[in-house]
Amino acid sequence: MSIVDHAVIVVYLAAMVGLGIWFSRRQKSAEEYFLAGRRMAWWAVGTSITASLLSSLTYLGEPGEVWSSGATHMLGKMLGIPFEMLIVWLFLIPFMMRFRFTSAYEYLEYRFNTTARRLGLVLFLVMATLWMGFVVLASSRALAAVSGIPLPVIILTMGVVATVYTILGGLRAVIWTDVIQVVLLVGGGLFSIAAVAWMTESWIPQWYATTKQYLLQHAGEHKALPWFSAAPRVRATIVTVAINMAVWYMCTHAANQMTVQRYFSTSDLKQARRSFLTGSVIDVFVNLMLLVVGLALVHYYVGHGHPLPQGIDIQVRQKRDLIFPAFAIGELPPGVGGGILAALLAAAMSSIDSGINAIATVLCVELRDARRRRDGTLTADGQLPDQVRLARWITLAGGAFITLAAWGLDYLPPGWGLIDAMPRTFNAIVAPLGSLFLIGIFLPRVGPRAAVLGVVLSLAVSLGIGYFQPLATWLVDRQMLSQATLDSCGLWDAKNGCPHSISFTWILPGSLVAGLAGAWVLSFLLRDRQEPVPAFSWSTRHASSPLVQKDQ
Q1: In the prediction, which pLDDT does 281 show?
Q2: Model confidence over 217-256: pLDDT tens digits?
Q3: CA–CA gap between residue 419 and residue 347 (Å, rounded)
Q4: CA–CA separation, 209 and 86 (whole Å)
Q5: Which of 265, 270, 418, 527 would bridge with 61, disulfide CB 3.0–4.6 Å?
Q6: Are 160 and 340 in contact (CB under 8 A)?
Q7: Integer angstrom CA distances of residue 374 from 112, 336, 368
């Protein structure tokens, strides 16, 4: 990295802190701090949702994934979009926007009980912590690899800056910094595409042809995804990727505070739907842009024979994920490469700020409602007098903890790329948490005990699929599971003498089905059936309730 590259990154970091200071002047109430006064512009909210959900994992992982499967992985993601958009647009946003909640997990108490609410909160906290630690680590690895700056210094800097501006400015600062960060993300990707086109005098058709030929030559290691295979050990197919992404999108929009809180910051359902549509369009554009970046880099290094950046081994998934930032520093003019790395920082920090702000919000709401329960008035409108101050302390603690957690995640198996690792870490909790909300919304007669046990079953299935290989190995070693049984299921690797892994694409759909079906069956077995709670399920959504906005 040149001095100019370093200067670009320093200016970006300073600008983010400056925005936090600017917006801190407007913090006069808890609603302003947590929900930006419920008056945020729909287009800014939609852009912020994209920034929060995209993260540096996708920014690094998608160009690296092109070296593994070409354009077929992205094709699977795109095929899942119409279904997921239909569910979120028609059902999830209209349902949740009827309530004047601050925390999404307030819903669970009214629909089930405090146990379900606390379970949802704990799952979210674990998921958010793992997610943000993973984001910090992935971004820091990339920056350390191409800049020479020690990994601990990068992790500390990223965590401190994102925590500081979030503490100061609340959700309003988070959303507006996210808008800036999306501009950087898009600008960095488009500039890289233009640079490769200019340097190689070629364009997307040639890049696609080069990538296709590369995959054919390395069919044993990298190959295009098949349309479908029922074999559980097949890494991914177009259909399973589509199903996987549709389930992730639905669960995230139903149960992830980082997303739901954005919609709560808009004034009404119309504005929330506009923000959702905006975020969806930007998300599709950015993902397709990253696909083209990946195709361009394959053509640059393979089609034109440029040597790969030092330290990059395309046979190792984690190394392939670093090709994009390595190209930016090694091949682009001074300052431009720094801008790309600033975009990478932006992708990471947009997830960090969203996560720690959401954590502070839900914990403050939990403390507020615990006091209300103690006083015997759950539906009171009062706020804790020191709620904003408390939220800032929680944000500080959360930022520090997440920064420390990033080091622990540095010990993930080296064979996993970012695309493989996400479902086996934080995304292992997405479907169990989402199933709790979907049970409440669409299974109106399921009671709280069955719902909670259904979520426990969902989590067990999620972890069982994600970590099948070490679990099966442990069982085989203790003669609790036979090799013949695994071989009959196509899950025994005779060459290496160990069980196969089950594809990560089965984790989300498998655990969601287990949660919904398990809760429904258990409601009969445990006799935990109940009359639908008025206003708190889809079938009773038109019932009157003091918690429902009448204009929705």
Answers
A1: 92
A2: 775 556 678 888 888 888 788 999 899 889 999 999 999 9
A3: 16
A4: 34
A5: 418
A6: no
A7: 19, 57, 10
Helices assigned H by DSSP within 39-150 = 42-69, 72-87, 93-96, 106-111, 114-147
Q: Give the Cα separation of 549 and 546 in Å (integer).
A: 8
Please report which helix (H) or strand (E) contains residue 52, including its range. Answer: helix 42-69
Give the tokens for residue 413.
């198996």
In the DSSP assignment, the letter for residue 38 is G
According to DSSP, residue 230 is labeled -
Of 470, 467, 471, 446, give the one whose Cα is nearest residue 524: 446
Nearest to 266 by CA among 6, 497, 7, 46: 46
Which amino acid, residue 279? G
CA distance 212 to 67: 10
Residues 6 or more apart whose CB falls under 8 angstroms from that of 475 comprise 481
Tokens standing for residue 358: 């959401």
Q: Which carries the bigger pLDDT value, residue 414 or residue 188?
A: 188
Q: Is 446 helix (H, G, I), strand (E, B) or coil?
A: strand
3-state helix, strand, coil in the chain (%, to 5): 75, 0, 25
Please tell me the predicted confidence (pLDDT) of residue 509: 93
- State the pLDDT confidence band at 380, using cuts at 50, 70 and 90: very low
> Tens of pLDDT along 387-411?
778 888 888 888 888 877 776 666 6
Whole-angstrom distance, CA of residue 38 vs CA of residue 35: 5
Domain boundaries, the chain: 3-424
Per-residue tokens: 489: 């299921």
Q: Between vectors from CA 242 to CA 352 and to CA 359, what angle results, nearest 5°?
A: 20
**What sign does the CA torsion over 310, 314, 315, 317 have?**
positive
The Cα angle at residue 109 between residues 108 and 113, in degrees rounded to 5: 110
CA dihedral 268, 30, 181, 272 (to 10 degrees): -10
Find the length of the chain: 552
Ordered alpha helix ranges (H), 376-506:
387-408, 418-424, 430-442, 448-466, 468-477, 483-488
Give the architecture-level CATH label for domain 3-424. Answer: Up-down Bundle (1.20)
Query: Helices 336-375 and 151-200 meet at what angle, rounded to 10?
Result: 130
pLDDT of residue 405: 74
pLDDT of residue 5: 84
How many other CB atoms sit within 10 Å of the CB of residue 231?
Answer: 14
Residue 376 has pLDDT above 70, yes or no: no
Q: Residue 40: pLDDT above 50?
A: yes
